Automatic annotation (TrEMBL):
Keywords: Dioxygenase, Oxidoreductase. It comes from the Bacteria. Residues 7-141 form the VOC domain. PROSITE patterns: VOC (PS51819). Gene3D superfamilies: 2,3-Dihydroxybiphenyl 1,2-Dioxygenase, domain 1. InterPro entries: Glyas_Bleomycin-R_OHBP_Dase, Glyas_Fos-R_dOase_dom, GlyoxalaseI/FosfomycinResist, VOC_core. GO terms for molecular function: dioxygenase activity. Coiled coil: none annotated. It comes from Streptomyces echinoruber. The lineage of its organism: Bacteria, Bacillati, Actinomycetota, Actinomycetes, Kitasatosporales. This is Dioxygenase.
Amino acid sequence: MTDSTPRLDHVVLWVRDPVASASFFEKAVGLRPWRVAEYAEGKAPFCSVRINEETILDLAPLPLAERMEVVPGAAASAGHPVHHVCLSLPRDGFDALRSRLEEQGVPVSDLSHDSLGARGKAKRSFYFRDPDGNVFEARHYD
C-alpha cells in the first residue's frame, strides 16, 4: 500500500548569497547543507538545507527569479513576503537552537506559550530572521 498523505517537500527562499545562507542555516539553525559545493562550482542553480529526510529549504539567488516564470507573474515573487516558516523541534532541539542563535548574535523574540499549530498547542515558540530577512518561528510541542 502506498502512503498518499500530502507532505511539504520544499520551500524556496530568495537570498542574496546562497553559500552564506547555507552556512547560517548550518551553524545557527543546525540544518544540514545540500548541494553547496555544486552551486559554488556553477553546477547547480541553487543550494539547499535539509530540514528532515523529506523536506528542504531551497536557497535561490535573487537573479534566478527572472527565469522562474512558471506561472504568469511568478518572477515578481522574489522578495515577496511570506510571513514566516515554522520549524517544529523536540524540546532539547528547541533549546539548543535558541542558544545557538543567541551565541551567534541573531536577535530572537520573546517566548510565546500555547500558540496553535499543526499539532495543537505548542508549549513554547519564538521567532528569528535569517540574514536575508526571512522570518522563522521555532516551536516545540512536548
